[in-house]
From TrEMBL, chains A, B:
Role according to the record: Component of the DNA topoisomerase VI involved in chromatin organization and progression of endoreduplication cycles. Relaxes both positive and negative superturns and exhibits a strong decatenase activity.
Compartment list: Nucleus
Species: Iris pallida
Residue ranges of domain Spo11/DNA topoisomerase VI subunit A N-terminal in the record: 145-206
Protein name (record): DNA topoisomerase 6 subunit A
Length: 431, 431
């Protein structure tokens, strides 16, 4: 950087022109001057989109357990429509009736969801369940309660499907507090039933509350209403809790921008970032909820778009990415429906802290617990498979520095949308 | 109730017809049979809407501090447009320049926000600030830091207004971490600046993240985009963080239904409750955030609609109502812009537990802390003013029972939308 450039008057209205321009600020300006025309940038994004499309097409359908010749050893659930789930329940009940008539009594075969029955399948990049089952006979003191609860949950789900409505776990619990005693008991059996029937929890019409929002270049229907997310103002559209009522996705976006925090989402929405760079912007406002994960997956698969992620530069940001990509352990039986593989880590990455000269005082020291979390991540399969990610994590653990997305505000409130993200896209700086 | 009615076959598909119908279930059915036609119900709601309109018109403009002849003793802030706030900042800076030139030095006069400087004004039904100020001179070791931070925040706000963008408190903090050291320091000074300039925090274009959602019979613009909330599917529209970009409200609703929890919101949205009973349904998903409070107030004032609240039957549900109605203590200087007076308590009320025969096992025992919170509420002015509320709270504290909205699911998942709420509206059962 030339001495001359450093003396360029600071266009930032917040800074005092008489004060010597700090080094970091001047670096920020020089980065701004590196930005090329939007057209060249869009061309490279178009290329990324085509690559994503091709990779999705060449792998044909997303890989399944049965492609791997280990179906009998593992178990996954899939999305099923109302009548298919109802038939499954009817078959299960008929089977039990026959068993009773044959004098063998009434019992459920329930897949085990214990961690000893879980396994990571590298080919799928997902955690799945092994096929261990346990019997839950009615005529046994130690299982009679659970067998009764299982029968009750099956009855309730059948009723919900018949009315074609959606309910929450809490609603289920309240239908028979005397029997369930505690919500954790009906919740656990609900997961059992999902595994037993081989269908997702959303297929059972039991939904979690939504907290995600979406804005940008996507149109879809929510329960029949056509939603155009370029016309959702700054607040955006709340992501619907019931993914089975979402359909007819259309988009001219080049990529999906997955954002960890709502503050960054708000900045992007207010600056209508998606008008300059055609994209769809999504956030779950922190820890991803089921509805947002389902929605992201649906968009990626149906629209065949690359997903770029903007998270804090700390172990927690990466853990959030891992939940989107590989699922969480307690819902491993549902991992194939909830996960979005191949998310690119755009930023904020540990190497960005120096590259973008984030001021020392905006970097936060990592606690011992943070460092431990970082080291634990280095042992995770989904990190190890990506050398770039390993390198970044090693920088994080070595420097013991973390930074939030908002640390970029130190160069001006709109630095994120005007310089940082455009430059990242221009340089194809994702991993 | 006649013996004959009790023998009516149970239409609930979830229950076993051979089993004796439990008393509570049979009571639920008898309540269902009390429902009149929707037309008669709508007429009574129309009457409520007219009453609300008249009471809003007869009180002319909402009462202000100056109506009460105590303006010098109290201080409130109001919504101001960008240029008005900029002028205030310019005047403040000019005043300081003159003070320096006159040899009196550089100092801020900052209103005290301590609880000793707060007071409840019964005529307004709001907490306001008294007019105690403290001086914050630059040339004093104990105040030089705070004076510098105040000057910096004024500069930042001026820049934000000039660009006509919105930022979060966290963004502000990151612009100068070295100076602010800790976000609580920039946050506190931001509140000071709001009081000093006499304008709301939203007028300063500093926004909090939104978490509320809205669905139903209202159309508004969000940053120029026209949003029709009857066409927002089940997910609803996320309430925008920046209320100053919300405008052009239109509605044919008869009332606003304020819901504490998102599970109840989802049930109402999926059943399209607003199509049967024209209303606008709003929730902040728990503790109300600033954006939802501003949005509710704007709707109530501009559309002149009654607000009916559906909260859990526990002290916490009532506390949430109090935040909507009277504000929270730490933002008392902004109470007139954030509060929505005259919210009717529709349910779930302590007396409903017996009236609707909520089964014993769906009622939760109150902890000692709950009971104390209930007793504390009985001492609050906003409760004392409403005899019906006092009576309800006394029932709660005496029976030591609380219940969630979802306890109504014990009579069927759609009991809330098909029986409980219609019956409440029919009986004008709000306080």
């Amino acid at each position: 950087m030339s001495e001359k450039k450093r003396r360029v008057p600071n266009p930032n209205p917040n800074s005092n022109p008489k004060k010597k321009v700090p080094k970091a600020q001047s670096h920020a300006q020089s980065l701004r001057s590196q930005l090329q025309s939007d057209a060249s940038l869009l061309a490279s994004l178009e290329k990324l989109r085509l690559e994503t499309q091709q990779s999705l097409l060449s792998s044909s359908a997303p890989r399944t357990l049965s492609d791997l010749n280990l179906p009998s050893a593992c178990r996954e659930v899939s999305d099923r429509d109302v009548s298919a789930v109802q038939s499954s329940i009817e078959r299960a009940v008929l089977g039990m009736a026959r068993s009773i008539l044959a004098g063998r009594g009434f019992s459920f075969d329930v897949p085990s969801r214990a961690s000893s029955n879980q396994m990571y399948v590298p080919e799928l990049d997902r955690i799945v369940l092994r096929d261990k089952c346990s019997s839950r006979p009615f005529a046994n003191l130690s299982t009679v309660r659970k067998a009764t609860i299982t029968a009750k949950v099956l009855t309730l789900i059948y009723g919900v499907l018949q009315r074609n409505i959606h309910v929450t776990k809490r609603d289920l619990f309240y239908t028979d507090v005397k029997l369930f005693q505690d919500q954790s008991q009906s919740d656990a059996v609900l997961d059992d039933v999902s595994c037993m029937l081989g269908c997702t929890r959303s297929s059972l019409h039991v939904v979690a509350s939504e907290k995600g929002v979406v804005v940008g270049r996507v149109i879809f229907t929510d329960d029949g209403d056509r939603i155009d997310c370029t016309k959702m103002g700054i607040g955006g559209k709340a992501i619907p809790p019931n993914i089975d009522r979402v359909g007819n996705l259309e988009s001219d976006a080049l990529f999906i921008l997955l954002v960890e925090k709502d503050a960054a989402f708000m900045r992007l929405a207010e600056d209508r970032f998606y008008n300059r760079f055609p994209c769809i912007i999504v956030t779950a406002k922190g820890q991803p909820d089921v509805a947002t994960r389902l929605f992201l997956r649906k968009m990626k698969i149906e629209l065949k778009l690359p997903v770029l992620a903007l998270v804090d530069s700390d172990p927690y940001g990466l853990k959030i990415l891992s939940v989107y990509m590989c699922g969480s352990k307690n819902m491993s039986y549902d991992s194939s429906n909830l996960t979005t593989p191949d998310i690119k880590w755009l930023g904020v990455r540990p190497s960005d802290l120096d590259k973008y000269q984030i001021p020392e005082q905006c970097r936060l020291p990592m606690t011992d617990q943070d460092v431990k979390a970082g080291k634990d991540l280095l042992e995770e399969d989904f990190v190890k498979r990506n050398k770039g990610w390993v390198k970044e994590l090693e920088i994080m653990v070595k420097t013991r520095h973390k930074a939030e997305i908002q640390a970029l505000s130190s160069f001006g409130f709109q630095y994120l949308t005007e310089v940082y993200l455009p430059l990242k896209l221009q340089q194809k700086d994702w991993l």
